[in-house]
Amino acid sequence: MKIAVLGTGMVGRAHVGRLSELGHDVVMGTQDVEATLNKSEPDPMGGDFFVTWHEKHPDIKLATFADAAKESELIIGALNGQVTLKLLKAIEPNLSNKVLIDISNPLDFSKGMPPSLFACNTDSLGEQIQRALPQVKVVKSLNTISADIQVCPKNLAKGNHVVFMSGNHADAKAIVSDLLKSYGWQQIIDLGDIITSRGAEMMMPMWLQLMKTEGTSRFNYQIIKD
Amino acid sequence: MKIAVLGTGMVGRAHVGRLSELGHDVVMGTQDVEATLNKSEPDPMGGDFFVTWHEKHPDIKLATFADAAKESELIIGALNGQVTLKLLKAIEPNLSNKVLIDISNPLDFSKGMPPSLFACNTDSLGEQIQRALPQVKVVKSLNTISADIQVCPKNLAKGNHVVFMSGNHADAKAIVSDLLKSYGWQQIIDLGDIITSRGAEMMMPMWLQLMKTEGTSRFNYQIIKD
Predict the structure, then answer these.
(1) How far is A73 from chain B (nearest CA, A)?
(2) For residue B55, what is the enclosing H or E element?
(3) What pLDDT does residue A112 have?
(4) In a designed cystine with B4, which of A54, A106, B68, B159 is the match (CB 3.0 to 4.6 A)?
């Protein structure tokens, strides 16, 4: 499938790498291609410099957000929550009638730690994106999972943990579900309409706390039933 | 130990029954003893009428909130989130220097379903209670778990799931941890200070959604690590 991954950080890189491995025709979207290729700062999450990463993945095409979205059937938004709405709105025509997987969290670090959520309780970033882009089929998923576990759940406890999915469009959720299964996800819970992004995004403060308590980001939620 | 359970609903009944089984000297607190004994409406959560339940547990003492707290070393607040702060504040002198386990959730059903949280994101009900009652050692725990599983975690999947705990007082958390272990809890995560109640309470919207999706309240969260 022709897939665009918007974002060149840890999450974007993980998806691009995995999708390429799985044989998809994948393009990575960024704000400014030249600037990204010439970036000389280390990744804020401790990963490789972009150029170093790209040398290891020479086949990955890099394009502007607009061009990446234009040529793709499925879009994965692996963007910082604080800019995701603005960046997506700017390329709205190229997203029209397509499926957008939104992985972002509405994290606001401006008031110090722990971060708060800038959309929460009676709203969510997933809903904001769907409202702002009514022609796009938004599916919220994967937002509280570490990048490498998102794309290869078997990297953690043989994959015995859960991923949630929220969205208004059944056909879009079927496509996302197939993609998640191809990543190796065995337990996918469809929570319902995009309003259920609220619950999924509100799992983030506990996740951040657990990262601190447990001293690792290598964990995921599971739902235990009889 | 002398323990007061404040609240006569499903959660209060579950704790009272289990504590009594475990040999504690337990008293159940209510607003108005006579009114509770003469209640003729069914329990809103579908349980027995109070009088029917009490006939099955004739040894359980019933007292006012104030009297129940006064004679006890440990207090369990199994109260509706919307009234818990007011009811606890009214008996503040009787709670002084004691450990209070707060199980309540800040659920607001006034705007329809799904309920929103009246404290959230940059505050929590756990923090509100601790701020309002500075002489009380508040420990938030058990708030997203069904009553019967709270008091007997082995009732679900042999107990292989997790309970969180938040509070400012290490001595209080040690007492609560011992109580939880006596209930059968094997996996207790101390999240940190009472501020971490935010994360624990924000797990409630997902819990309510899952109850709908899964068609049962017989589930609990687990944290999967390698």
Answers:
(1) 29
(2) helix B50-56
(3) 85
(4) B68
In percent, the amount of chain B with pLDDT more than 70 equals: 100
Confidence of residue A113 (pLDDT cuts 50, 70, 90): confident
pLDDT, tens only, B35-55? 999 887 777 777 788 888 999
Please judge whether A191 and B210 are an interchain contact, meaning their C-beta atoms are less than 8 angstroms apart.
yes
Q: What residues of A are in contact with residue B198 (Cβ under 8 Å)?
A: 114, 205
- Chains A, B: CB contacts within 8 A come to 118
**What dihedral do alpha carbons A75, A81, A82, A85 form, nearest 10°?**
30
Please say if the pLDDT value at position B209 is more than 80. yes
Among the partner-chain residues A206, A213, A219, the one whose CB lies closest to the CB of B202 is A206
Residues of A in contact with B161 (CB under 8 A): 224
> Looking at chain B, which residue has its C-alpha nearest residue A225?
B219
* Contact residues, chain B, for A213 at CB < 8 Å: 189-192
Cα-based distances in Å from A117 to A62, A108, A121, A122, B55: 31, 6, 9, 12, 48
Q: State pTM to two decimals.
A: 0.96
ipTM higher than threshold 0.90:
yes
